[in-house]
Specification:
The chain is 47% helix and 14% strand.
Length: 253
């Protein structure tokens, strides 16, 4: 066991040396997938899988801080997830709330809700709003918490906001349609004012976006990992970063 630990550490250090700071992504999106399957394989209640996933989030953000990655977006609860059984959903909501508290209490970390808070249970929406109101003086890492999030809904909400603003200004629909640009839509997304993700990671072996940052990820690099989220290790993360560093980004060119 001791030898295994030593070999793991040596391999981890080698991977870290292979990833130069200059090529690290500035914004990473993470689809924390596989908590339920992890619990099933372990013969444990689904709640335990979600809790293990929450604990992994805290650990993962520690790795990001070590590497001075400034922005991370975590896909924690989609709009589709809200249709799960009330028993599972209630437990998941509590775990998310507790995780938000843990993150908000972490020095140097800023929590930013990304999603439709109005569709969430009131106590969770209130907790997310309170966490967002706290802006640390020495913010080293911004964590976008995608809760009650759906990519299609985000785009629809952005367009609705543009139309409401135009109506308030007395502009016609024809005028709005004539002048509408992709930049305007970007400026009305939940992530407005933030850089698009350079890298999107999804665990559990699934290879699809499932509505995550659909607009923002147009030119992102994607990395799909077989490990279930609670089993995601630092070496898995470093492999993703090494893979990202080896790519030549073209941005559509």
């Amino acid at each position: 066991m001791r030898i295994h630990h030593v070999l793991y550490e040596l391999y981890s250090r080698r991977l870290r040396r292979e990833v130069a700071p200059a090529v690290l992504p500035k914004h990473i999106g993470v689809m924390v997938d596989g908590n339920r399957r992890w619990a099933k394989l372990a013969g444990a209640p689904t709640h335990d899988g979600h809790q293990a996933g929450a604990d992994k989030i805290v650990e993962f953000l520690g790795w990001c801080r070590e590497l001075t990655i400034p922005t991370v977006t975590l896909y924690m609860l989609s709009t589709d997830n809200l249709s799960r059984s009330s028993e599972e959903l209630d437990a998941l909501i509590d775990i998310i709330g507790n995780t938000v508290d843990r993150l908000a209490e972490t020095p140097g970390l800023r929590v930013v809700p990304v999603g439709a808070l109005e569709i969430l249970p009131e106590h969770l929406a209130t907790k997310l709003a309170a966490a967002a109101a706290h802006v640390p003086d020495d913010c080293a890492l911004q964590v976008n918490v995608a809760v009650g999030y759906g990519g299609r809904r985000e785009i629809v909400d952005a367009v609705k906001e543009i139309l409401r603003e135009a109506d308030d200004a007395g502009r016609s629909l024809s005028d709005v349609a004539q002048s509408l640009t992709d930049l305007q839509i970007s400026e009305h997304l939940y992530t407005r004012g933030q850089p698009d993700p350079d890298l999107v990671i999804r665990t559990s072996g699934e290879q699809r976006l499932s509505g995550f940052l659909m607009w923002q990820s147009a030119y992102s690099e994607f990395y799909f990992c077989e490990a279930l989220w609670p089993d995601f290790r630092r070496v898995d993360f470093l492999r993703a970063l090494r893979d990202y560093a080896s790519r030549q980004r073209r941005f559509g060119a």
